[in-house]
Write a sequence for this structure.
């Protein structure tokens, strides 16, 4: 949205406030407000907020897939304004109270952690499954941590930015491969004795990385697509997926993940702070987007402090 004034086939045709990964303090509530856990929502509660607002009555919602809601609204996706501001009105049912040990940075990162959980759910990772994760940005690094908890081994991570490769190693990657200097497909093929990985998860730019993910997967393997391509096109050789008989699943947001994400953060099983590279003020938002777009200054995840 920042780079192209659209996401997929949804264009931005007038000013809109961005920001969909956020947390905050409840300043006011409506009559009978009930939070996402079914409890009364109270003023002063510290909450993480699910930006997706599903209708609850369409066919997909009724079948338990609120992330595919046919009538959804989404905080920070045009035409709905986002969270890069001091005050925001959201449904009480979108608010998940967080424990005192969960700070506001961690609470905001429960949203991308939820995406990682959903991606691993779709991958159906079993103990001992080999996994390749393409992209060591915030989502890829969270998928790495969740896949490791799910029992995946070995876990290969491909990335082009050296500081992100270093972080991937620190977070448990068996092998972190710079795909610009090393043939990642060859490296993984050799490491798996020519077999390929059980699961390949694309969490990068969704360009040539999609084909690379398919090349990394073994015959009969699973391919999960998480990244969103700038050109809104999927580039993949049909012969690769046909001859391998790959199962392809596409992650759209998340579903039923916030309680698990909160539990993982509370237990210390997932380290959310490690992916944060910068903390900037609301007044520095333009700088934050510029740094992130240029991949400057060892950027991984920038947190915006709306107020102190």
């Amino acid at each position: 949205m920042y780079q192209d004034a659209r996401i997929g086939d949804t264009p931005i045709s007038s000013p809109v406030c961005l920001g969909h990964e956020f947390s905050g303090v409840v300043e006011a509530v409506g009559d009978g407000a009930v939070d996402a856990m079914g409890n009364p929502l109270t003023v002063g509660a510290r909450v993480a907020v699910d930006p997706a607002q599903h209708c609850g009555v369409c066919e997909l919602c009724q079948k338990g897939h609120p992330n595919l809601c046919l009538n959804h609204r989404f905080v920070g996706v045009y035409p709905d304004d986002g969270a890069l501001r001091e005050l925001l009105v959201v449904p009480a049912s979108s608010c998940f109270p967080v424990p005192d040990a969960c700070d506001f940075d961690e609470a905001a990162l429960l949203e991308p952690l939820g995406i990682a959980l959903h991606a691993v759910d779709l991958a159906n990772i079993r103990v001992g499954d080999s996994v390749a994760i393409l992209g060591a940005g915030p989502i890829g690094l969270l998928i790495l941590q969740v896949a490791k908890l799910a029992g995946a081994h070995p876990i290969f991570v491909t990335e082009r930015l050296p500081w992100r490769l270093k972080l991937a190693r620190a977070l448990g990657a068996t092998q972190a491969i710079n795909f610009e200097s090393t043939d990642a497909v060859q490296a993984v093929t050799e490491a798996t004795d020519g077999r390929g990985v059980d699961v390949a998860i694309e969490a990068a730019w969704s360009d040539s990385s999609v084909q690379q993910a398919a090349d990394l997967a073994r015959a009969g393997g699973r391919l999960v697509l998480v990244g969103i391509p700038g050109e809104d096109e999927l580039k993949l050789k049909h012969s690769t997926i046909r001859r391998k008989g790959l199962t392809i699943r596409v992650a759209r947001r998340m579903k039923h993940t916030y309680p698990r994400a909160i539990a993982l953060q509370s237990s210390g099983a997932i380290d959310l702070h490690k992916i944060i590279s910068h903390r900037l003020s609301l007044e520095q938002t333009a700088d934050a987007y510029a740094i992130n777009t240029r991949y400057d200054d060892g950027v991984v995840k920038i947190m915006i402090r709306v107020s102190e």
